[in-house]
Amino acid sequence: MVPHLVFGVPTHGFFVALGVAVAAVVFVLECRRRDALREESLVAVTGALVGGAIGMRLSSLAETLDPYESWMFGARSVLGGLLGAYLGVLVAKRIIGYRERTGDLFAPAVALGMAVGRIGCHLTEAPGRPTELPWGVHAPGTVPSCPGCASGSAMHPSFVYEIVFQLAAFLWLRWARDRITAPGELFTLYVSAYAVFRFMVEFTRANETVWLDLTRPQWFLLPGLALVAVRLGIGYRRGHYDEILRRKVAL
Questions:
Q1: Range with the poorest average pLDDT among 42-46, 103-107, 147-151, 187-191
Q2: Could you tell me the pTM of the whole model?
Q3: Among 66, 71, 166, 211, which is least packed, fewest CB within 10 Å?
Q4: Which residues of 41-61 are buried (b: 16+ CB within 10 A; e: fewer)?
């Protein structure tokens, strides 16, 4: 059984904090590489941290209408945190009048930070839905909200799927960052890929379905999937992805 504490800190919280620290280091390194390490970029990071924390807290309102219970004891949604972080950056940049795009600086940092943070989820939360696949995992029956854990069923290691995705995304972003020069497009591609992945991986997660066999995160993602499809279409028509797609440009 996996211990609930790491160096005296709750396992989940430890890996979330470690993920934030890793993301911060990657962000600073990327800023230095792009010669963008300025006060404005640090203000954007502050906005991301504050907005992300608030977004994760408020996201639990989808499960209960009690604001106090949601704020103090509600689940911490990664999707809510990401949306809050994005809005936090926009607000922080608006306050200081900073107009340059910063998403490309954040994309690799978020990917690697998410990979680290999800280790804590894998060690402490319900892995996923029952499966007969050979890589199914078992978890202690004490894991909350996990019928499969109590029955001893093999389950999808859904958080491992995400860890692998985020690591692959981080490596791909490092490869693509010098091939995609249009500002903001690297971030757009990462967010689009994660939205599609997260929608699909929900079919293996242990989250409750609410309507048409879809979970709350899937319903949350549906409008976003439509928006990113339109955004990717615009970027494709403008030729922003020609080099990574090896598409020949007409002269």
A1: 147-151
A2: 0.84
A3: 211
A4: bebbbebbbbbbbbbbbbbbb
